[in-house]
């Protein structure tokens, strides 16, 4: 079952499958959140969950502390939706479909 993810305050939203991280789902839809390692090690993709439920895959405590988890923060690269979710996050930018084109080798 696909879940609807809304990003506040910008209001953008995207569909995300349960086996797709919030970071992957956003990127697939052209919505770029801050990220770096994409392995739960750096904390760059930290976002706040406003509502909904996620499954958090293993991560480094240096990237996300227990106090931050208690305050409803998560790592977008390690978070898999289990319901519709609203997150508070800043977008790096949007890529419109067809905006980028791969150059020939
Ligand atoms: S991008 Fe590094 S923890 Fe998510």
Description:
It is a single chain. The chain is built from 2 helices and 9 strands. It has 105 residues and is mainly beta. The protein has a single domain, classed as Beta-grasp domain (Ubiquitin-like (UB roll)). The strands form 3 sheets. A 5-stranded mixed sheet has the order 2-1-8-4-6. Strands 3-9 form a two-stranded antiparallel sheet. A hairpin with a 4-residue loop joins β1 and β2. The N and C termini lie far apart (38 Å). The mean pLDDT is 91. The chain binds FE2/S2 (inorganic) cluster. FE2/S2 (inorganic) cluster binds next to loops.
Give me the secondary-structure topology:
Layout: E1 3-8, E2 13-16, H1 22-28, E3 31-33, E4 46-51, E5 54-56, H2 66-70, E6 73-75, E7 79-81, E8 85-88, E9 91-94
Parallel strand pairs: 1-8
Antiparallel strand pairs: 1-2, 3-9, 4-6, 4-8, 5-7
Bound molecules: FE2/S2 (inorganic) cluster.
FE2/S2 (inorganic) cluster (FES) binds next to loops.
């Amino acid at each position: 079952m696909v879940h609807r993810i809304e990003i506040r305050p910008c209001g953008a939203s995207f569909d995300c499958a349960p086996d797709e991280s919030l970071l992957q789902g956003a990127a697939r839809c052209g919505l770029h959140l801050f990220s770096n390692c994409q392995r739960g090690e750096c904390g760059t993709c930290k976002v706040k969950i406003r509502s909904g439920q996620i499954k958090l895959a293993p991560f480094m405590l240096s990237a996300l502390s227990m106090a931050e988890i208690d305050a409803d923060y998560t790592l977008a690269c390690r978070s898999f939706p289990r319901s519709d979710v609203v997150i508070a996050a800043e977008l790096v930018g949007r890529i419109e479909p067809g905006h980028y084109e791969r150059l020939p080798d």
